[in-house]
Amino acid sequence: MEATREIYWNVGHGVLIPMYLFAIIAIGILVYGFKKRLEIYKIGKPLNRFDNIDERVRLLLTNVLGQTKVLKVAAPGTAHALFFWGFLTLTIGTTLVFLQADILNPLFGIKFLKGIFYKLFSVTLDIAGLIAILMMTGFFIRRFFVKPEGLETIKDDYIMHGLLFAILITGFFVEGARIAATELRNNVSLAYWSPVGFFVANILSGMSESSLLALHKGLWWVHLFLAFGFIALIPFIKFRHIFTTSANYFFTDLRQKGSIDTIDIENEEAESFGVSKVSDFTWKDIFDADACTKCKRCQDRCPAYNTNKPLSPMKLILDIGESATSGAETNVIEKVTKDVIWACTTCRACQEICPANNEHVNKILEMRRNLVLMEGEFPGEEVMMAMDNVEVNGNPMGMGFATRGDWAKELNVKIMSEDSEVDILYFVGCYASFDKRNQQVAKSFIKLCYAAGIKVGILGKEEKCCGEPVRKMGNEYLYQMVAMENIEVIKNYNVKKVVTTCPHCFNTLTRDYKDLGFDIEVEHYTTFLWKLINDRELQIKELPFECTYHDSCYIGRYMDIFEEPRDVLKIAGANLKEMNKNRYESFCCGAGGGRILAEENIGEKISVKRVKMAEETGTDMLVSNCPFCLTMFEDGLKMAELDEKIKAKDLAEILVERLENQE
User: Is the pLDDT of residue 90 over 50?
Assistant: First the structure.
């Protein structure tokens, strides 16, 4: 006898009409539910996320079928991926049964579920179902017994776990009852190809034939209605993420990471700038709330949340979604609260790890824009003063603009207004220009360039703040003002290449300035020096030392530059000991998002938490390549009383100590 089974055994083909009737009802409820959700998304402003379809489809398939973003966190990610693949396999199996039983066989007499294919089909589905049950058990234990801190459990979780368990278990009992009534009596060898069903069949084998038939038919209907209930419930509870999270991969922001919309400040028709109410957001901002799986990965990595500040990126997304259900005019800022909005360091750790592809940072920036541009509000008087200083003197410290290039006088650096025949323009930045500690970094960089035969020029008093801190604090008007002045000055000198030692300047000049017409190549000194060393234009001696390296957010997560600085340190002789949180998981220093301008008055100091991570490595040196990080770490080391134990140094300072031609 050829290996196969009778589809609709014991229930008969008479079930088709009621089965399809209920299927249509379930699908109708699903469509209705998503139609109601669509009305909520439409509250938001238009946004084109349907360009470059090929790339969007690739991202969708890669992340859904490959579970790429989900697997970024190994343990729960693997469990979710295995459950997904198991459930997907069961869905494919059910679809194959439907194709043969209801279309191909009755219309064309085609049967493909037979022979060796049927055996493989049976064993594959049984294993897939078993894996799904095991993973569901793991989820159940994690959510209801182990329950990691911050993992919220709501009514949806009880429904989801109960329903999925019921669908999977009733499916195996339906199979077990069929095998006990048929294959155990007639073709036991075929039953081996359904190992889980065979196990259940042996449990049920003591029942009479009539009892098995009744059990099979009853559970068949129960299993069917559970499946239809699952379909109908999808839009109304967390099940909706099956569709919304998948769709969010398609709706990926394909611009460079960290891109921010540039406001047309001169638009006289604009009634307001930034976001204060739900309708000011885009439809994608609202959609993100439905895509959120409440996995708390973003929250676990948020430096603000982890230092007892009120910001939870997860709750931010959910609060926006909740506000949207209350109506287009709902004040989102009041719902989210200002302390949450100002706490963000824009480190992007939340977005980097989010398995739902949600976009947290720009939502916060848009609300900051509204607070600053429309309400004139800042997180503190010190921020307002820094803004005034940038407007008057071109730097947040309030130092006289005419002294901006004084740090370089002893080095005979070329001032562009006097001699613009240079290989690179060094865009120094405010901290390296005025902060004595960071001036040492700037001087080290100049010495390294000279050692490599690179002619360096600076703008001196013509350079202004790049505008990044004020922009991240919401002052788009002031940002554009100083940015346009910088762009005009740089372009006047026909500069071929700009190099900066500040990741924030680097990110701003490289990406943000493009919207304002700036198209000159910009490079961070980390990769610039790495190339000089590898091309043997810069000779560095290897002198052994031990250190840990901090990946600054705007070089790491924003620019994906991780290995070059590590390579340079190793060439210099470093025995590198990594902190627990490094590379994409690196913990922010606390200065990003304009927070360098603001006092940190709530919770623990972010910089203190980070330097304590450095202490755990057992090294006596913390190396960074960002003036903000260096400043924060030196303060953090003092506050943590670690300044006698650990020294904060910049990468350029390490290298200048090891110049081959240095006496």
Answer: yes
